[in-house]
């Protein structure tokens, strides 16, 4: 059973895994922006990253008061050593090493100083409905949750559930034209779902950092639960309308749709063909089916931090894609 630290508990000494990855860097940025609220901020990184990201780590150590610990997440001695004096562990480890968190959690549970563990979630709700239990991309994170909930004795946890990042889902066509996206320069788009009318909840990557920091600032209400948070909810048609508004106000002519039955077909083909993008297709299908929508979101539980709007996201994308206005 997980534990519940006393209501006086405040995270003071933080250790992050995966702190320089896609989403980890936004979490680290947010924590560094509030550096004075913490005694220690440390990151645990692989020797490979220590070498390839040496100048970034130098900057963190010299200018941001971040301790950089180099080690192997599979080396129990190195991890146990890194946990000394740490009360809160935040993992932003990547999809390929989700299950490697289980020994990290076991060691955290055994470490007398560590009281709180935030595993790598920051995505789609893996317990949205009974069907979630059999979704292939959720399996690793489900095992991690089961371990935190059933096998720990002296450790609290929090799952920060954010839904998709609009920067990844909206910008360009990272998985090809049928997987959805917007190109403001060429004024072309693919909207998922029937006429793009299916709402999706998004959290920007910067806001994931803001929301994790807000979680750290509200410990007792966050223990041993999922926080389902987001920046905004909109439809693909709503995103299209915002792009058209910000690119001259005229309708775009090259707008395509990928309805759910076609999305399911592409998903099945990707899994059958062993495509590395298969999980991406499943997630797009889940989002389009409404798997990011909640009766109540939990932003207020952690103090309703100020978050990014759709207008701001589209403005950034229009500018980064060099669209003619
Ligand atoms: N909601 C969304 O749209 C969305 C999108 C992407 C990701 N996510 C979620 O965000 C979380 C983090 O994903 P990410 O894309 O940010 O991760 P990532 O950039 O792929 O990896 C993060 C860090 O994990 C460590 N790592 C990765 N592979 C490793 C390996 N084979 N062995 C040891 N360490 C390894 C590395 O840290 P070091 O080298 O520093 O140790 C790396 O910088 C995941 O839970 C993922 O599902 C959500």
Number of strands: 12
Given helix and strand content, the structural type is alpha/beta
- Average pLDDT number: 96
Strand content: 15-25%
Task: Please state the oligomeric state of the protein chains shown.
Answer: single chain
Poorly predicted segments: none
Protein name: NmrA-like domain-containing protein
Keywords: NADP, Oxidoreductase
Pfam families: NmrA
Organism: Paecilomyces lecythidis
What does this structure look like?
This protein is an alpha/beta fold and 325 residues long. The protein has two domains: 13-164 and 203-228, Rossmann fold (3-Layer(aba) Sandwich); 166-201 and 232-292 and 303-320, UDP-galactose 4-epimerase, domain 1. Helices cover 38% and strands 16% of the residues. It is built from 13 helices and twelve strands. The protein has helices spanning 24-33, 47-52, 54-63, 76-82, 101-110, 139-150, 166-170, 205-217, 219-222, 236-246, 260-272, 278-288, 310-320; strands spanning 13-17, 40-45, 67-70, 88-91, 116-118, 156-161, 181-183, 188-192, 200-202, 225-228, 232-234, 254-258. The strands form three sheets. It has a seven-stranded parallel β-sheet, with helices on both faces. β1, α1 (24-33) and β2 form a beta-alpha-beta unit. The longest helix is centred in the middle third of the chain and has 13 residues, at 205-217. The relative contact order is 0.14. The mean pLDDT is 96. Residues 18, 20-24, 45-46, 48-49, 73, 92-97, 120-123, 162, 164-165, 168 line the site of NADP nicotinamide-adenine-dinucleotide phosphate.
């Amino acid at each position: 059973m997980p534990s519940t630290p006393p209501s006086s508990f405040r995270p003071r000494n933080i250790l992050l895994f995966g702190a320089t990855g896609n989403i980890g860097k936004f979490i680290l940025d947010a924590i560094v922006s509030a550096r004075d609220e913490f005694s220690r901020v440390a990151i645990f990184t692989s020797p490979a990253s220590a070498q390839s990201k040496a100048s970034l780590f130098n900057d963190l150590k010299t200018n941001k008061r971040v301790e950089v610990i180099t080690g192997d997440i599979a080396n129990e001695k190195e991890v146990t050593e890194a946990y000394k004096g740490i009360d809160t562990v935040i993992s932003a480890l990547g999809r390929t090493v989700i299950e490697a968190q289980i020994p990290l959690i076991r060691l955290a549970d055994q470490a007398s100083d560590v009281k709180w563990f935030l595993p790598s979630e920051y995505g789609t709700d893996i317990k949205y409905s009974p069907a979630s239990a059999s979704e292939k991309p959720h399996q690793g994170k489900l095992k991690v949750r089961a371990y935190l909930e059933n096998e720990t004795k002296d450790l609290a946890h929090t799952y920060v559930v954010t839904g998709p990042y609009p920067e990844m889902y909206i910008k360009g066509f990272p998985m090809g034209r049928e997987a959805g996206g917007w190109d403001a320069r060429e004024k072309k788009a693919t909207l998922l779902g029937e006429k793009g009318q299916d709402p999706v909840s998004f959290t920007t990557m910067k806001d994931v950092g803001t929301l994790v920091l807000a979680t750290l600032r509200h410990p007792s209400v966050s223990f041993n639960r999922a926080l389902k948070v987001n920046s905004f909810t909109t439809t693909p048609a709503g995103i299209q309308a915002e792009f058209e508004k910000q690119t001259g106000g005229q309708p775009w002519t090259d707008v395509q749709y990928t309805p759910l039955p076609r999305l399911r077909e592409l998903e099945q083909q990707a899994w059958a063909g062993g495509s590395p993008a298969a999980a991406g297709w499943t997630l797009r299908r889940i989002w389009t089916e409404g798997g990011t929508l909640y009766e109540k979101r939990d932003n207020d539980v952690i103090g309703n931090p100020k978050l990014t709007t759709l207008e701001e996201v589209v403005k950034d994308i229009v500018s980064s894609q060099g669209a003619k206005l």
